[in-house]
Amino acid sequence: MDKILVLDFGGQYDQLIARRVRGFHVYAEIKPYDKITTEEIRRAGYRGAIFTGGPNSVYGDGAPRCDRQILSLGIPVLGICYGHQLMAYLAGGTVAPAASGSEYGKTKLRVKDSALFRGVPEESVCWMSHTDAVTELPPGFAAIAASEKCACAAMEDETGRLFGVQFHPEVTHTEQGGQILRNFLFEICHCRTDWQMDDFITSAVEHCRRTLSGKSVLLALSGGVDSAVAAVLLQKAIGDRLTCVFVDHGLLRKGEGDFVEKTFGGTFGIRLIRLNAGARFLEKLQGVREPEQKRKIIGAEFIRVFEEEARKLGKPDVLAQGTIYPDVIESGKGDSAVIKSHHNVGGLPERMAFEQIVEPLRDLFKDEVRQIGQKLGLPAALVYRQPFPGPGLGVRIIGEITAQKVALLQEADAIFRAELEAEGEHLADQYFAVLTDTDSVGVMGDARTYGATVALRAVCTDDFMTAAWSRIPYDVLERVSSRITNEVPGIVRVVYDITSKPPATVEWE
Ligand code: XMP
User: Fold this and answer.
1) 372 vs 374: CA distance, rounded Å
2) Spatial contact of 494 and 451, defined as CB atoms under 8 Å apart
3) CA dihedral for 260, 266, 269, 272, sign (positive or negative)
4) Does any ligand 1 atom lie closer than 6 A to the CB of residue 342?
5) Which residue from 260, 257, 295 is spatially nearest to 278, judged by alpha carbons?
6) What is the C-alpha separation between 155 and 114, in angstroms, rounded?
7) CA quadruple 285, 290, 291, 292: dihedral positive or negative?
8) What percentage of the chain has pLDDT greater than the value 70?
9) Which DSSP string corresponds to 207-238?
10) Which of 47, 129, 241, 295 has its CA 20 to 30 A from that of 339?
11) Is the pLDDT of residue 21 over 90?
């Protein structure tokens, strides 16, 4: 199989580069710059190499540098950002703080004729993030692109094998980024498109089988796509040595607990333990109104229930988790402000000392995990499930949580979801009902009623970091409102949330 080496110099986007290469059905292997020798690179038979970006300056103390001989192996190399500067430095050019200042964000790019830019218009927008720049080209190199502030936004050597770009072709803000990477892979490295998701499944299963030989593995199944795909992969690898524990905290959506049990225990025959712990959670939440406190109680109780079960099972050797790559990046940002303390099963190992942790999806992005889920035969309802917060309906019931309120919200939410899904058209990326703590007056059959107010929330978003409220057609909203007030006794009013994020968050708590 043709493969590309992604030589990692500590950039934020190393996985994204690999993901883009995989998107073109070419296998990409990420290696830290100091964990592979030039000889190993030569022997591995890579079709090409990509040097990633990184936070350093090439002349800085301890700057990550690789052997300059890599540039003479005859395999094409594409340096990105720091990788571009490093290539210039290694090949005898000069890198310095850009005289005209750093460039950050969307930047106009003008390209010249080069195999790297085949099919790329002369002028387009790229995404830059740099302070240093290549100020003097190495011998035998020529500049092949420029931006307003950067005369060497890209370079190529006379052999047509070495290329550097100051901008980031791997991010979607670079309009022609896909075309540029495609040119590198196919016009320059002459890769074949012979990598498929099936190859990932085969090698992940094989890897787990080898590394988990004879060991017992415990996985906390949440019902979300990540832990679900991890469970099915692991079951393929080690069968009955995998036990999945599904903690039903009683704050799930209508029918969800049964669906998870039926899918995993039934269809896939996975050894599944469902713990119906709703009463325990409600007891702990009694009288609690403050959102952060609710989140913390639910998270802590979740760990307690899980730990108790692990102990009963005689503490399995390995903890398995459905961690995916964006979780890895997010958890690395230790200094960002806490808006909400997220509760995920990913928070488990801090408290639980397992001999080993296995995370088979750690290098993948959400859409790749979905592709695998589909290939493994998971139901579409699960594979394309919208995100659901760990604390569940606990953060969608404003004020104190009671069993009656959970039941009311489950009914209203099920109606909203069913009506939106019946539309066939994709109206929102996440949609749910919230039970407010505002009671209000209504009238029904000439009599006064007094009951709860439900808010409907539906948002359109790419990444859930920002979101717009969905423009759901009025007649759909009308149908939902009418059904909820008619079919769910106790709810007399339905309102629609028209706040974007920011300033609001997606969830109400
Ligand atoms: P917010 O409310 O922060 O939500 O705008 C952004 C996205 O994150 C989901 N969310 C959570 N997911 N554990 C999770 O796994 C949590 O504690 C949690 N809180 C919010 C939310 O549903 C939305 O998709």
Assistant:
1) 5
2) no
3) positive
4) yes
5) 257
6) 10
7) negative
8) 95
9) HHHHHTTT--EEEE--SSHHHHHHHHHHHHHH
10) 129
11) yes
Q: Which atom of ligand 1 is nearest to the CA of 508?
A: 2
Provide the annotated active-site residues.
Answer: 81, 168, 170
Out of 298-302, 444-448, 460-464, least confident range: 460-464
Would you give the DSSP letter of residue 188?
I
Taking each helix axis from N to C end, the angle separating 225-238 and 366-375, rounded to the nearest 10 degrees, works out to 50
Tens digits of residue pLDDT in 239-286: 999 999 999 999 999 999 999 999 999 889 999 999 999 999 999 999
Place of tokens 């929102």: 428
Instruction: Write down the residue that tokens 């302070």 correspond to.
Output: 131
Top-ranked range on mean pLDDT: pick from 152-156, 315-319, 423-427, 465-469: 152-156
CA 195 to chain centre: 21
Asked if 411 and 494 count as a contact pair (C-beta separation under 8 A), the reply is no
Dist. CA 9–CA 50, nearest whole Å = 10
Give the H/E segment covering residue 439.
strand 430-444
Ligand 1 mutation pick, 464, 499, 500, max ligand atoms within 8 A of CB: 464
Q: DSSP letter at 86?
A: H
2-38 as b/e: b if 16+ CB within 10 A: bbbbbbbbebbbbbbbbbbbbebbbbbebbebeebee
The pLDDT confidence band at residue 289, using thresholds 50, 70 and 90, is very high
Q: Could you give the CA distance from residue 83 to residue 205 in angstroms, rounded to a whole number?
A: 33
